[in-house]
Write a structure and sequence with these properties.
The protein is α/β, with parallel strands linked by helices. Helix content is 36%, strand content 22%.
């Protein structure tokens, strides 16, 4: 076993267990054959690169020497007698852009709700920044450094753009109720500080001219950016984005991709997103997890996910191989029918629409 691994991997690091703040982690194998990417492998399991899904943990090269920002082990939740998510495992690099994809109803948003403690998991463990989130509530999670957006935009429509961001910054203020009622110097100083902070975020995303606009009057794409800015104002270590490109046109989606990259690079945080727009997912995500019926069916790099037969089957209802077999069979049936003179024509190559010769 050791000889085989030494041949396949360039280096072996003896480090700690990913589930418990890295005190007893098993081993990391750095495989230069996959573009300088590090692969975490449980020492109890045989690493098989041909296996479509064996729960390996993929870490981008830039994060391989850092403790991951998020680690999930055996996460699951039941609603009554229904298992919505089961045995979900994830390791996200400290500055990684990761993607969670799958058909509608696969359980993606449910996972986000468990990570942020909107739902309490039935089983499993979540470790954020090396610490267990057991016993935490949604407020604790946000204070620890995890922020999220939602599928449906949840802005304060009647407040201005600037005020929406200031709402997220008020947890950093240092004045009491009396200061606020009397507008004391302490209150004015703190309000000036958070206004300056809010304008900093607007400047980063090129929205200073809209600071006094009502949030509800903004175009859809700008509202999405504002929601992301508001989440960033809480100074997260990890940003969860739930379908950030929903409802956007191709131009807005392209701008969003640039925005997400800029956020990661500027703030050096991890980003984990749910998205149905595959051009966005494949364009910016470094690692991808695919969910179907609450279970992980694939995990890997974008180029691997694109050609994974289980993923294709989950989205299209049949595998590429099955589709090719069916197309080949249709072609053979059509040729046989013509050779026997049983068809006049086969419009659009569809034998089921062809007309039989009148007898």
């Amino acid at each position: 076993m050791a000889d085989k691994r030494d041949k396949e991997f360039d280096a072996v690091y003896d480090i700690s267990d990913p589930g418990h703040g890295y005190e007893n982690r098993q081993e990391i194998y750095y495989n230069d054959n996959v573009g300088g990417r590090a692969v975490f492998v449980d020492s109890k399991e045989q690493y098989d690169p041909d296996e479509p899904y064996n729960d390996q943990v993929y870490i981008p090269e830039k994060d391989r020497d850092k403790a991951p920002i998020l680690e999930v082990k055996g996460l699951g939740i039941d609603f009554g007698g229904l298992t919505a998510v089961d045995n979900f495992n994830l390791t996200l690099g400290r500055t990684e852009i990761g993607g969670l994809i799958g058909p509608n109803g696969a359980g993606k948003t449910t996972i986000f709700n468990m990570l942020t403690k909107v739902y309490e998991p039935t089983r499993g463990e979540i470790f954020f920044d090396g610490k267990s989130t057991k016993g935490m509530n949604t407020v604790d999670i946000n204070k620890a450094g995890m922020a999220r957006t939602f599928q449906n935009i949840r802005l304060f429509d009647k407040l201005t753009v600037e005020e929406n961001i200031k709402v997220a910054l008020h947890h950093t203020t240092n004045y009491g109720l009396i200061d606020g009622m009397l507008h004391t110097p302490k209150y004015r100083h703190e309000e000036f500080r958070i206004r300056k902070e809010a304008m900093k975020y607007l400047k980063i995303f090129g929205m200073t001219k809209t600071a006094d606009y009502r949030a509800g009057s903004l175009p859809y794409g700008a509202q999405r950016r504002l929601e992301i800015m508001r989440a960033l104002a809480t100074k997260p270590k990890l940003l969860l984005l739930d379908e950030p490109a929903a409802g956007m046109n191709p131009s807005e989606t392209s701008e969003l991709m640039d925005t997400i990259r800029e956020i990661r690079d500027r703030f050096q945080i991890g980003i984990f997103l749910i998205e149905h727009d595959m051009s966005l997912v494949m364009g910016i995500c470094e690692g991808i997890v695919v969910l179907n019926y609450g279970r992980t069916i694939a995990k890997g790099w974008p180029e691997d996910i694109q050609r994974n037969p289980k993923v294709i089957e989950a989205y299209l209802g049949k595998s590429r191989g099955k589709m090719e077999e069916e197309e080949e069979k249709e072609k053979e049936d059509l040729e046989a029918a013509f050779s026997k003179g049983r068809l006049e024509s086969a419009p659009s190559g569809k034998p089921d629409t062809a007309r039989k010769e009148s007898e």
